[in-house]
Design goal:
- The chain is an alpha+beta fold and 349 residues long.
- The protein has helices spanning 7-30, 32-45, 80-93, 109-112, 120-124, 137-141, 149-158, 174-187, 191-203, 228-239, 252-258, 327-341; strands at residues 49-55, 58-65, 74-75, 169-170, 225-226, 243-244, 247-248, 268-270, 279-280, 285-290, 293-298, 306-310, 315-321.
- The protein has one domain: DD-peptidase/beta-lactamase superfamily (Beta-lactamase), CATH 3.40.710.10.
- The protein has a seven-stranded antiparallel beta sheet. Strands 3-5 form a two-stranded antiparallel sheet.
- The protein starts with 6 loop residues before the first helix and ends in an 8-residue tail after the last helix.
Length: 349
Amino acid sequence: MSYKYKTNCLKYSAVAIFMLLFQGAFTQSSFSELDKMIIEKQKIIGQDLVLIIAKKDSIVYQKAFGAFNAKTVAPVASCSKWLTAALIMQLVDEGKLSLDDMVSKYLPIFESYGKNYITIRHCLSHMTGIQSEPIRIVKLLEKKKFNSLEEEVNEFAKKEIQTNPGTEFRYSNIGLNIAGRIAEVVTKKKFDILIKQRLFNLLGMRQTTFSTLDGSAVNPSGGAKSAAADYTRFLQMMLNNGIFNGQKILSEAAVQEMKKLHTSLDKIKYAPKSAEGFQYALGSWVLEENNGRVVALASPGLFGTWPMVDNCRGYSAIFFVKNFLGEQKADIYLEMKKLIDGQFKSNCK
């Protein structure tokens, strides 16, 4: 490589460097109110926190507080659902399945127990109609009793039907785990290996995994461990209609399908406190609509991590923490989103 430059090139390079430094300083100062709020609320949100905001392919804000940094790995709980939904949409893109396929097509045990009308779409939108219990912290912390995803999903097939599929929304681990098991059947690969090969490797999410250390069943609904920098790559892909670093991960049609509203407020019979009042798409909650079109999504996790994509303002953000997400913390994140919104011009009318 040659290191000989003309004088003019050096001048232009110096100017370019100065502009980049100036731009970085401006970016950080423009988020000063956000910085202030994070510090004020840090005891509530969690002492260890990373916030990354991306605009298209560029990181415009990144700060770490406490012991966490952008590469710190921690459980992300229900943020896992968005990742699992994306994997299913990859299989739809490849023609290996359809969202409106009956679950029993791939898992005959569901037909054996009279659950013929549940579709994969119902699974991704928590509308299977299978009797479920509210997700509780204590239950999540208990040691898993299943040795495989197959074993767990077979037990779901035996549960009572609470309502007709597609008529009521009840947030639980049932639907997404059924979808994850279907992915195993279709590809003949274990879920944790499959999602690593199909999604994480393509996005360069090297620290993200669903694998368990104790040999227990993987949990497509809430078992991922990730890092803020990793999950940001997924969010950028969603923001850019399925493209990351010039590579197509999902079709634009698949991303649009993931953003469609799949519920109405009257159908929501159970939602966690952090999501009350919101409706659901596929794997994520709808934060904002514009003229009937979903423009902002989030997939908050029980441990406090809150990833989101705002298509109106063209940015993604992730608050990455390890703490228990309560109703008060959800309100704080939404307040912070308003501060972030103010830094970007909306392209929605």
